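Is this the right way to post structure tokens for a design question? Let me know if I should format differently. Anyway, here goes:
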């Protein structure tokens, strides 16, 4: 045990160094996402104040030692609002990714395995895909009152068809394999074949698709909030912060710049992680 414990740190460092050397872009992206997650979780201890607290002092003040990112038109600290806004964007992005992947996996497995349901399910998915995601999300949020839960539901419904079609394609490919035919011949239940033999073939593309859904959901949420159809104005999200600062962006560009740069870094990092996972699972795509 002592020998293992003495040699483990160098081995771990060697593996970590090899991973960073082989894919530095993905490594940096993982670090950026981890920093954003830590920032969101530790927001109360990062020198922030109540993000909704109105101040009687100078409004739309420039960045200073007292207010690192300045203040908005209501005197609220922009730094605190940006830090707390990471919680909203990350929660919405992760929730949409997980829910859409899980539900899309079930729909895709059923559509690809049960032939008589395939046409019905896919026509419904095609109908949803014919509407742009942002327009479908706007229509769904307009039918409900603004809240984080309703925004998650609206974006999930808009992203669900793409996951279902991806899984269905993987299922149709796996269904033609010899081992699946052998399992059917032996009389195994369809549910067991789907879970044991077909579903593992869908996990790799699902992980890649999930990261892109994560990033896309954050962008859609920011767009919805920017036009007033997303989270309520009292919830500090990056989209709401940019929406509130657009009236003064020509003379006070920092009101839009800081939340925009955080959103851009988050979306870019998550997309780079997705590209790195794609290269891992499909080496033929490396470098394209």
């Amino acid at each position: 045990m002592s020998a293992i414990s003495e040699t483990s740190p160098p081995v771990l460092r060697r593996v970590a160094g090899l991973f960073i050397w082989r894919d530095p872009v993905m490594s940096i992206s993982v670090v950026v996402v981890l920093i954003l997650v830590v920032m969101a979780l530790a927001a109360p201890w990062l020198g922030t104040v109540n993000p909704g607290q109105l101040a009687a002092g100078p409004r739309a003040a420039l960045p200073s030692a007292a207010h690192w990112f300045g203040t908005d038109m209501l005197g609220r600290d922009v730094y605190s609002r940006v830090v707390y806004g990471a919680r909203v964007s990350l929660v919405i992005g992760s929730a949409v990714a997980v829910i859409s992947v899980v539900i899309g996996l079930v729909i895709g497995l059923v559509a690809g395995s049960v032939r008589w349901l395939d046409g019905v399910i896919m026509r419904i998915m095609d109908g949803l895909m014919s509407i742009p995601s942002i327009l479908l999300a706007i229509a769904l949020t307009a039918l409900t009152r603004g809240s984080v839960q309703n925004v998650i539901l609206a974006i999930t419904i808009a992203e669900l068809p793409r996951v279902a079609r991806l899984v269905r394609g993987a299922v149709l490919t796996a269904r033609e394999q010899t081992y699946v035919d052998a399992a059917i011949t032996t009389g195994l239940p369809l549910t067991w074949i789907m879970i044991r033999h077909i579903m593992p073939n869908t996990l790799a593309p699902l992980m890649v698709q999930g990261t892109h859904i994560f990033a896309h959901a954050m962008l859609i949420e920011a767009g919805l909030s920017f036009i007033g159809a997303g989270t309520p104005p009292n919830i500090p999200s990056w989209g709401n912060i940019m929406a509130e600062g657009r009236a003064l962006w020509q003379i006070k560009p920092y009101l839009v710049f800081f939340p925009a740069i955080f959103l851009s870094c988050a979306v870019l990092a998550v997309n780079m992680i997705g590209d790195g996972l794609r290269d891992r699972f499909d080496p033929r795509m490396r470098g394209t």
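Format looks fine. Someone answered above. Worth noting: The radius of gyration is 23 Å. The chain has a mean pLDDT of 78.
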